[in-house]
Amino acid sequence: MTRNQEDSFALIDKLNDDCLERIFQFFPYKNRIAVERVCKRWQIVSQRSWIDINYIWQAFMVEKNITDEKIFQVLQRGVVYLKKVCMCYSKEDVNPLRSDLEMRSRIFNLLKEKAVNLRTIFWTFQVRHDDVVEFLLKRVGQFNEMIVCPVYPPMRDETLRKIFNKATKLKVLTWNWNCWFSLEGQMNEFAGMLPSTLEQIKFM
Q: Which strands make up the sheet holding 145-148, listed edge to edge?
């Protein structure tokens, strides 16, 4: 470390924790994770700074080379503060590796257990059926908006009814037909399952 770098660090270190936390909130999420390695104090303050994660969910849309591991690292730190999460990939995700599916299981289990403030969720990658169903049965009652993307294998009628019965606050739903085991033509059956609170539905 050069003398100038030492002076700069000493100056920054004079800031109180609240000021330091506010500065960290302007960092891209990768940098915010990196500063945890500077010292014990910065680690504690950086982890506190994730209270603003409600405003950085869009990083998942614009970040290049996004991976399941990166998403998991962010969620570990800010999951209890999340109100809206978008987990989007630019690449096609037709046949994910087993390791990808294992990490996605960890992501959805984390959301199931700790995402107490979550109101909106959107994902574009393939997820195992049981992971999605367990998560939705635990958290769907909190949601105002939900965009449901590929699930393997698709959900059956009984499971779907259980989920929608719990969706007592859902107003906006975007639905992927690949999530459901029934045929696309069975619109009346599908419509009969939808929650009465629903104001808007889109199909993809």
A: 84-87, 120-123, 145-148, 172-175, 200-203
